[in-house]
Amino acid sequence: MKVVGKQRNSRMCVICGMDNPIGLKAQFYNMEDGSVMTPFQYGENHQGFPGRVHGGMVASMLDELGFRALWTKGSEEIFGVTMTLEVKYRKPVPYNEPLTGRGVVEKETSKFVTVRTEIFDRDGVLLAEAEVKYIKLAIGKIVEAAEPHEEMCYLCEDNVKELPYREAH
Predict the structure, then answer these.
(1) Would you tell me how many other CB atoms lie within 10 Å of the CB of residue 83?
(2) Quick check: 62 and 117 in contact, CB under 8 A?
(3) Less Cβ crowding at N or C end of the chain, within 10 Å?
(4) Is the whole-model pTM more than 0.70?
C-alpha cells in the first residue's frame, strides 16, 4: 500500500521514542487508504514468557496505533486520551520477528474517536487487535506546560514509499 506521509517520533515514548534504550523506535506512516501503519519488531527485553511478547507491550502498541490514526488527517495537533482499550489476543506475538501494525479511524465526532488497531505477522496472520476509544483534548489539558513538538521532535526521513499489506487471515 502506498505511503502518503510520515509522522514524527518522540524522545522517550516506549513505542516511538528514539532516545529510549528499551523502546521499539517504531516509525509511523500515513497510508493512501487513510490508515496508519508501522513495520516494527519487539525485542527479547519485551517478553512475558520466552518466545512471546508481554501482553502489556502488545496492548501499548495497539494503543499507540490508535492515537497515531488520529494524525492521519494531516495534523499532529490533534490530541486525545485513551478512554477504553479492548484487546483481543488472537495468537502469541513473537519477538525478534518482523511485524506490522495498522490503525484506522472507524468513528469520529467533535469530542470522541473510535479506532480499530491490529498487529500482523510477516505472513499477514492477525495476532492481536483492539478497539480503542479516545476523548479529544487540547494538549494543555493532558499535560501541564507541555509543548508537544519538544517531545515529538524527530522526523526520521527514510524515503519509504510503500508498505506491504494483506487483509487479515
Answers:
(1) 12
(2) yes
(3) C
(4) yes
